[in-house]
Amino acid sequence: MPRLGKMERELLKSASGKQATVLYPFTKDGLNIPEGLRGRWVYKHPDACTGCKICEKVCPSEAIEMIECRAEDVQTKTGYRPVCHFDRCLLCGQCVESCPRNVLELSETFEMAYLSREDMIIY
Amino acid sequence: MTESDEPRIVIPPRVTIPIGPQHPALKEPGMFKLTVEGERIIDAEVNIGYNHRSIEKIAEGRTFLQVLYLAERICGICSATHNGTLAQAVEAAAEVEIPERAKFIRTLTWELERIHSHILWLGVAFHEVGFDTAFMYSWRDREVVMDLLETLSGNRVNYAMNTIGGVRRDVTDSLKETLLKGLDKLEERMKYYRDVAIYEKTFWNRVDGVGVLPNKIAKSHGAVGPTGRGSNVPTDVRFNDPTQAYVHLRDSGEFEMVLSDREDVAGRAIVRVVETIEAVRMCRWLLHNLPDGPIRERVRPRIQPNEVLARYEAPRGEVIHYLVTNGSDKPERWKVRAPTHANWVSMAYTLRGGYLADAPIILAAIDPCFSCTDRVVLVDAEDETIQLKPLDVLRAESNKWYESRT
Ligand code: SF4
Ligand code: SF4
Question: Which residue has the higher pLDDT, B13 or B404?
Answer without folding.
Answer: B404
